[in-house]
Amino acid sequence: MEPVILACTRIWLIIISCLVIISIVGDVGVMSSSSTVAGLLSYQYYETSCPQVESIVTDKLTPILLSDPASSAALLRLLFHDCQVQGCDASLLLDSDTSEMSSSKNFAIRNRETIGIIKTAVDSVCPGTVSCSDILVLAARDAVAMSGGPKMKVLLGRKDSNTSNHTLADASLPAANTGVGEMLSIFTKRGMTVEESVAILGSHTLGVSHCVNIMDRFSRQIIGANRTPFETLLALRCAFGASISNSGTVGNDVTITKFDNQYYKDTSRGRGLLKIDSDMSTDPRTAPIVERFAQNQNEFFKEFTAAFLKLTSANVLTGHQGVVRTKCNAVN
Ligand code: HEM
Ligand SMILES: *[C@@H]1O[C@H](CO)[C@@H](O)[C@H](O)[C@H]1NC(C)=O
Ligand SMILES: *[C@@H]1O[C@H](CO)[C@@H](O)[C@H](O)[C@H]1NC(C)=O
């Protein structure tokens, strides 16, 4: 008798623990599917459908970045301008009409065709599988790493939009003279902390700005106020009509092809280029963080990684909300 009872007790224990496990797993399943959109993206999204995607992107991008080091900056800004409008959905790759005009917020956006080149390479191995928006995120991620920045893991599984809206883009992208308050409002809406907001601006460790976008740094000359030595330098650099012809550029920091914390060092010494770069070093909300990143590159990289994940996950299309475009610059 006794062994039978024991066996029955054990069976009941097993059944009960199985029920407990099922209910726990069930809860977790419900939680992950109904919480944030980032929950629908995954690090393994293409693990079975296109396991080579990350290496194809890196292989295609490496020679492009080696032959044109300025394209790292271009790709990172391209990503920001895509993600800022309606979530990262490659809509910016559809909208090619007015990017050369200085009145457009997408002024001087470059390297859109690079995403198309990588897409063709990816599609030759995994046809119709990987979205243009995921390729753009991977390319920007690689551009940061290859310039000496943090090596980041990114979530995948975004879908592309069927539409782009140039009016919406111009309304959603920050103006060249954006201040600290507006900047913080933009990025805290994306779920970023103040530290992460200051860190994502560290993207300005790469690339250049056109004179037309920094004129308010030295045009104080006109109203007779004193300029700082750096502003005098900028005025000279942008003199002789370069600011009017849109052709003149100035480096965003001293090391424009290196992803490092030089941007914060420059900014904290009064050598921030754009208004936002300069203001961040004096505004009490951001100045201590600028100082911290200037002292400690690891802190910057850590916060930048968290911020990049949030920038690239907010508001994205997943599942049947979007499509995998065949050509990145045209709807299917
Ligand atoms: C309030 C926020 C921001 C403002 C007001 C701003 C403004 C600007 C402006 C005016 C330029 C110069 C464009 C030109 O004249 O060619 C620029 C360049 C750049 N921005 Fe930003 N930006 C902001 C945030 C960001 C973010 C979040 C990123 C990346 C995630 C980013 C990445 C870049 C890069 C890499 C460049 C250099 C582009 C190149 O050299 O081709 N920016 N930004
Ligand atoms: C584009 O965006 C603008 C500004 O938000 C909006 O008024 C307009 O209706 C949008 N157009 C389309 C076709 O969705
Ligand atoms: C996008 O466009 C394609 C092709 O025109 C269409 O089949 C699809 O239903 C559209 N998807 C969405 C989400 O609008």
Automatic annotation (TrEMBL):
<dbReference type="Pfam" id="PF00141">
    <property type="entry name" value="peroxidase"/>
</dbReference>
<keyword id="KW-0349">Heme</keyword>
<dbReference type="InterPro" id="IPR000823">
    <property type="entry name" value="Peroxidase_pln"/>
</dbReference>
<dbReference type="InterPro" id="IPR019794">
    <property type="entry name" value="Peroxidases_AS"/>
</dbReference>
<feature type="binding site">
    <location>
        <position position="255"/>
    </location>
    <ligand>
        <name>Ca(2+) 2</name>
    </ligand>
</feature>
<dbReference type="GO" id="GO:0046872">
    <property type="term" value="F:metal ion binding"/>
</dbReference>
<dbReference type="GO" id="GO:0042744">
    <property type="term" value="P:hydrogen peroxide catabolic process"/>
</dbReference>
<keyword id="KW-0812">Transmembrane</keyword>
<dbReference type="InterPro" id="IPR002016">
    <property type="entry name" value="Haem_peroxidase"/>
</dbReference>
<feature type="binding site">
    <location>
        <position position="260"/>
    </location>
    <ligand>
        <name>Ca(2+) 2</name>
    </ligand>
</feature>
<dbReference type="GO" id="GO:0005576">
    <property type="term" value="C:extracellular region"/>
</dbReference>
<dbReference type="GO" id="GO:0020037">
    <property type="term" value="F:heme binding"/>
</dbReference>
<comment type="function">
    <text>Removal of H(2)O(2), oxidation of toxic reductants, biosynthesis and degradation of lignin, suberization, auxin catabolism, response to environmental stresses such as wounding, pathogen attack and oxidative stress.</text>
</comment>
<keyword id="KW-0575">Peroxidase</keyword>
<keyword id="KW-1015">Disulfide bond</keyword>
<feature type="disulfide bond">
    <location>
        <begin position="132"/>
        <end position="328"/>
    </location>
</feature>
<feature type="disulfide bond">
    <location>
        <begin position="211"/>
        <end position="238"/>
    </location>
</feature>
<dbReference type="GO" id="GO:0140825">
    <property type="term" value="F:lactoperoxidase activity"/>
</dbReference>
<dbReference type="InterPro" id="IPR010255">
    <property type="entry name" value="Haem_peroxidase_sf"/>
</dbReference>
<feature type="binding site">
    <location>
        <position position="205"/>
    </location>
    <ligand>
        <name>Ca(2+) 2</name>
    </ligand>
</feature>
<comment type="similarity">
    <text>Belongs to the peroxidase family. Classical plant (class III) peroxidase subfamily.</text>
</comment>
<keyword id="KW-0408">Iron</keyword>
<dbReference type="GO" id="GO:0006979">
    <property type="term" value="P:response to oxidative stress"/>
</dbReference>
<feature type="binding site">
    <location>
        <position position="91"/>
    </location>
    <ligand>
        <name>Ca(2+) 1</name>
    </ligand>
</feature>
<feature type="binding site">
    <location>
        <position position="89"/>
    </location>
    <ligand>
        <name>Ca(2+) 1</name>
    </ligand>
</feature>
<keyword id="KW-0964">Secreted</keyword>
<keyword id="KW-0479">Metal-binding</keyword>
<dbReference type="InterPro" id="IPR033905">
    <property type="entry name" value="Secretory_peroxidase"/>
</dbReference>
<feature type="disulfide bond">
    <location>
        <begin position="50"/>
        <end position="126"/>
    </location>
</feature>
<keyword id="KW-0106">Calcium</keyword>
<feature type="binding site">
    <location>
        <position position="82"/>
    </location>
    <ligand>
        <name>Ca(2+) 1</name>
    </ligand>
</feature>
<feature type="binding site">
    <location>
        <position position="253"/>
    </location>
    <ligand>
        <name>Ca(2+) 2</name>
    </ligand>
</feature>
<feature type="binding site">
    <location>
        <position position="87"/>
    </location>
    <ligand>
        <name>Ca(2+) 1</name>
    </ligand>
</feature>
<feature type="site" description="Transition state stabilizer">
    <location>
        <position position="77"/>
    </location>
</feature>
<keyword id="KW-0472">Membrane</keyword>
<feature type="binding site" description="axial binding residue">
    <location>
        <position position="204"/>
    </location>
    <ligand>
        <name>heme b</name>
    </ligand>
</feature>
<protein>
    <recommendedName>
        <fullName>Peroxidase</fullName>
        <ecNumber>1.11.1.7</ecNumber>
    </recommendedName>
</protein>
<feature type="binding site">
    <location>
        <position position="85"/>
    </location>
    <ligand>
        <name>Ca(2+) 1</name>
    </ligand>
</feature>
<feature type="binding site">
    <location>
        <position position="174"/>
    </location>
    <ligand>
        <name>substrate</name>
    </ligand>
</feature>
<feature type="binding site">
    <location>
        <position position="100"/>
    </location>
    <ligand>
        <name>Ca(2+) 1</name>
    </ligand>
</feature>
<keyword id="KW-0376">Hydrogen peroxide</keyword>
<feature type="disulfide bond">
    <location>
        <begin position="83"/>
        <end position="88"/>
    </location>
</feature>
